[in-house]
Amino acid sequence: MKALSPLDQVFLMLERRNQPMHVGSLMLFQPPPGSKAEDIRGMVELMRRQDQPQPPFNQRLTRKLGVPFWTEDKEFDLAHHFRHLALPRPGRIRELLAMVSNMHSALLDREFPLWECSFIEGVADGRFALYSKMHHAMIDGVASMRLLESLMSTEPAAKAMAPPWAFRRTPRKREGQLAAPSSVLGSVLGQAKSQAKALPVVTQALLSTWQQARREPEFGDLFRAPRTLFNRRIGNARRFAAQSWSLSRIRGVGKKVGGTLNDVVLGMCAYALRRYLQDQNALPNKPLITMMPMSLRRDDSDSGNQVGMVLANLGTHIADPAERMGVIRRSVQASKQRLSQMTPTEIMNYTALISGPAGLNLATGIAPQKQLYNVVISNVPGPKQPLYWNGALLEGMYPVSIPVDGMALNITLVSYADQLSFGLIACRRSVPHVQRMLAYLEQGLAELEAL
Fold first, then answer.
1. What Rg do the C-alpha atoms of the chain give, in angstroms?
2. C-alpha distance from residue 111 to each of 7, 116, 165 (Å)
3. Is the same domain home to 410 and 331?
4. pLDDT level of residue 365 (50, 70, 90 thresholds)
5. Please, which residues bridge with residue 29 across strands?
6. Distance, CA of 362 to CA of 31 (rounded, Å)
7. Number of domain units in the chain
8. Is 223 inside a domain boundary?
9. CA 446 → CA 182, 249, 254, 358, 449, distances in Å?
10. Which residues pair with residue 25 across a beta bridge?
11. Is 136 labeled as catalytic in the residue annotation?
12. Within 13 A of 185's CA, how many CA atoms are on the CB side?
């Protein structure tokens, strides 16, 4: 058995009917040349036959001494997790995104391993799609990208490739085995010792954060975010919008404005959020604050979460794009500088402590005017070369993340070859017409190109 980290446990505790805590991906494929409908359905049958899951897909939740653990599911049922679906004709992308919106709204059953996968045929031009979702307590973005890259091939001729749940990885020590009571207790005590050791550094970092926030108006930490229409209670219905941009184009803009790729992405998002709120007559006088997850993964593991967070000022109160970009760059640099002085364990504990009050606030609404950040913008690096799965070309991949109470919009990006794909997931009721932000993202990029 494997104990969940404190951050993994937070993802479990935050889950409610209106707030599923799973992350997903939508992958769009071009079938091999000359393929027929029966060939596509043959792929589905091959996937169904591979019903011996590998970790972490065979792991379900259990508890020992009050601590949640992952343990092997001895009664695994593939039919519960894998589905074969079809879009009605003409199979446009808008219908595909609507289907994903509906599937992403539903909770995962905790009596089973916390994942699902759907094979969707009937997409326009003979294409098919794979939509999958896994509980965030099981996996983070970097681990899921690692899994994807190991699953696929750069060779179009490669065949007999396993579906995600049946792909065999190198086994790790004691993975999937039951732990004795003594080892369970040792794991609990080990976690407590590690957190106690990090406490002095984390406390000093929190004090430094508070002092810097008081000195610098542009600083993005400590509940300085304004209330916006994104920061309200959410329902259980979702709306998913997605689009890709050229990585070469975005990097070219970064060179022109003297910023990184992430700086340009934040600049695009800042423009889109500003424009959307202006349309709703709801743009606050104070700048929106974004939270950007930062991967701390230094091993080859493919489960759990190893992330910290960077908070940044988006400068949405500023009309001038050059001045707005300057605020974004300085704010990101200040946050990264502080984290660079801590170890990964210290950063995870710091993240848990600084976001703990925010999570309590989101769960209880006890201090609605105290907002830590307004929106999550996450950028996950993906494969750099075109990939194939059983001869089918991966045309694009689009991340599907998590809106929560008080954070009704999430923007996640994944890079693939020369594409940067944006996935916007929002509460359908709280953030109406979220698809309009795709046009605003393009306008924001064009505005930076014109500087």
1. 22
2. 21, 13, 18
3. yes
4. low
5. 128, 394
6. 44
7. 2
8. yes
9. 60, 10, 12, 35, 5
10. 132, 399
11. yes
12. 3
Of 261, 344, 256, 359, nearest in space to 306 by CA: 344
CATH assignment at residue 53: 3.30.559.10
The overall pTM is greater than 0.70? yes
**Parallel, antiparallel, or unpaired for β 59-64 and 67-72?**
antiparallel
Strands 375-380 and 289-295: parallel
> Residue 436 belongs to what H/E stretch?
helix 436-449
Residues 203 and 85 in one domain: no
Q: What pLDDT is stored for residue 372 in this prediction?
A: 83
Banded pLDDT at 61 (limits 50, 70, 90): very high
- Catalytic-labelled residue, pool 81, 104, 135, 136: 136
Residue 192 belongs to a domain:
no
pLDDT (0 to 100) of residue 220: 47
Q: Are 388 and 365 in contact (CB under 8 A)?
A: no
The residue among 309, 268, 325, 319 whose CA lies nearest residue 442 is 268
- CA distance from start to end of the chain: 55
Check whether residue 202 and residue 161 sit in a common domain.
Answer: no
Query: What CA–CA distance (Å, rounded) separates 42 from 123?
Result: 17
- Distance, in Å, from the CA atom of 84 to the CA atom of 116, rounded to the nearest integer, reads 11
Domain that holds residue 24: 2-170
Q: How many residues does the chain have?
A: 451
- Residue 194 and residue 354: Cα distance in Å, rounded? 18
CATH number of the domain bearing residue 209: 3.30.559.30
Closest Cα to residue 130, out of 108, 106, 103? Answer: 103
Q: H/E element holding 291? A: strand 289-295
Same domain, 148 and 249: no
One domain for residues 162 and 213: no
Least confident of 207-211, 237-241, 251-255, 293-297: 207-211
> What six digits make up the tokens of 388?
């194939």
Omega prior to 56 cis, within 30 of 0? yes
